[in-house]
Design brief:
With 341 residues, the protein is of the alpha+beta class. A hairpin with a 4-residue loop joins β6 and β7.
């Protein structure tokens, strides 16, 4: 039984720009000047951001009006997620783009997220199955445990000192400034010292994002040299003229890892650069970086674990699952193998 609602929001671009330039008027002036410098005859950036801001505020106002009567609620900005303590009797609601759902999920413990799309006309919202116009009905279903729920596999990094970090989409292990990272990587019985731009570990939910961009780049590099040598492999599994897909189901207890730009030298090897970590298996990475070594997840570089020399990270499938309420009317995420309740 839910005792209260926690509504998680995020600042709009206008709000962030106003804070950056001290006032909204100054933000407009700077954006207009930038547009003019880029050759625009009529500045448009501020106007576009302002429309997005108005749409978001309208959705937020509408959602607040449709909250269940008499039920306590809290408004939490995304920037406070890492310091907020959630309890099992809170109904977790988000209003923002997909990234807000991603950033929220890793701080929860078995609570599903009711994710609303603040601007359906402009935001596709793969993770946003609900619209605020029917919020009363969705709240009623959620509060009575009548909405289906999708379990989503997450990744977990656990340091040798006990600190942990979860990821909905991706973990990044490397240098804070994305320069060359040095570490020892171990997968099963194999291990080696490496120098690279860092390691990306992706879940099924993240497999169409950062990981896919790495695969796309690698695919076209290989194609270029195969074409040049006249030895193109036209029967490569999963490939077509556009690239190669690495997508897998969000509930699969499996991760893909990719070493970014591995460098071979007298002291670094490139034998373990791409692969899977499944089930209870773990990949271990030991830092050899004297400073600025980090592990962060889902693009949130401000929320990181320090990962300097002597620290070892054990990386694998998390025992914790992200959970998202599904809209029974949209069929979003529906597959025969989906775990729903």
């Amino acid at each position: 039984m839910y005792a209260s609602i926690v509504l998680i929001t995020r600042k709009t671009a206008i709000e962030e720009l106003s804070a950056l330039f001290n006032t909204k008027a100054q933000a407009k002036f700077c954006l207009d000047q930038f547009d003019l410098q880029m050759g625009e005859t009529k500045p448009r950036s501020f106007h576009r951001y302002n429309i997005q801001h108005d749409n978001y505020q309208s959705s937020l106002d509408g959602l607040l009006k449709r909250l269940p009567a008499g039920m306590k609620y809290q408004l939490i900005d995304r920037s406070f997620l890492s310091n907020f303590t959630f309890s099992p009797d809170q109904l977790i609601v988000t209003l923002g783009q997909d990234g807000l759902v991603v950033n929220t999920a890793k701080y929860l413990h078995d609570q599903p997220i009711l994710a609303f799309n603040p601007d359906p006309e402009n935001i596709d919202g793969v993770l946003l199955p609900f619209e605020t116009s029917r919020a009363e009905w969705y709240f009623e279903l959620a509060l009575s445990n009548s909405l289906p729920v999708k379990d989503i596999c997450m990744a977990k990094a656990e340091l040798s000192d006990g600190q942990t970090l979860h990821a909905f989409n991706d973990l990044f292990i490397g240098m804070k400034n994305h320069t060359s990272a040095r570490y020892r990587i171990q997968l099963g019985e194999k291990s080696e010292d490496q120098c690279s731009s860092g390691v990306i570990v992706s879940t099924g939910a993240g497999s169409t994002g950062w990981l896919q961009s790495i695969v796309n780049g690698s695919f076209h590099i290989v194609n270029f040299f195969e074409n040049k040598s006249g030895k193109r492999n036209s029967h490569r599994s999963g490939a077509n003229s556009e690239g190669m897909t690495c997508k897998f189901d969000w509930s699969d207890e499996m991760l893909y890892f990719s070493v970014r730009e591995p460098f071979k030298s007298r002291t670094s090897q490139i034998g373990i650069t791409f692969g899977q970590v499944e089930g209870k298996d773990r990949m271990k990475i030991t830092s050899q970086m004297s400073e600025n070594g980090v592990i962060f997840s889902d693009g949130m570089e401000s929320d990181f674990l320090t990962f300097n020399a002597g620290m070892t990270a054990s990386i694998g499938v998390s025992e914790k699952k992200a959970k998202i309420f599904l809209n029974p009317l949209s069929g979003l995420f529906r597959k025969e193998n989906n775990h729903e309740r």
